Amino acid sequence: MAKTNEPMDPPPDADPLTPVLRPVRAGNGFEEALEQILQVVRLGLVAGGERLPAERELAERLGISRVALRDVLKVLQDQGLLESRRGRYGGTFVRQRPDAPVSGVEEELRRRVSGVDIEDVLRFREVLEAGAAGLCAAHGLTGEQPRRLRSALAATRDAPLAEYRRLDTMLHLTLAELSGSATLTAQYAAVRATVNDLLDCIPLLVRNLEHSQRQHTALVEAVLDGDADAAREIAREHCGGTAALLRGFLT
Length: 251
What we know:
The structure is a single chain. By secondary structure, this protein is mainly alpha-helical. Helices cover 63% and strands 3% of the residues. It has helices at 29-42, 55-62, 66-78, 104-113, 118-139, 145-157, 161-178, 182-199, 206-224, 228-250; strands at residues 82-85, 91-94. Strands 1-2 form a two-stranded antiparallel sheet. Strand 1 and strand 2 (91-94) form a beta hairpin. The radius of gyration is 21 Å and the shape is elongated.
């Protein structure tokens, strides 16, 4: 039988969402679910004007509750990427995108990322964050140090939205400084400046900040309890959430 070079059609039941949608990890469920649905939209796996799978199916595929899923969808609706329609033929639909290939936010983010090895930056940040948290917990904080860490945490908890990112940075810089390594602190300050330059292109998402704040609290508690393993793991999860957001907006 003669061979042909014509591409084979995918099987009729092939699901284009399968390579993207997968169960999220417990630590960063919101951010990872947001990242995956952003990928679905950005990659055009569901065309503009078409409907996403039903909430029940999406929640099952992502391994999250329907309440958590609705938080994710609400964020994307607020960003103008999705819209909700009621009625018999309602659901959550991907909005038609403008003729321009990227929005202003995306364009600026891509411009800033163009000169940065983003994966290297995110990995280095994770190493420094986890290392600082582990050192603080393992060596213990003395004197005024516990009060400084608690005060930095309290400042983020009470921060107005416009001040949150600055005070979040101060909390993490405080943790780096309390690790006792001047080199680690300097390196963290440099990598955090790069990360902040990228985060400034992304809107502050209240649901993400609430989750981030819970992680901050757990991280500080682990450090003050002297639980180095837990402190390192929470720090890694926390960095993973930021990475998921950035990757989502870049896809």
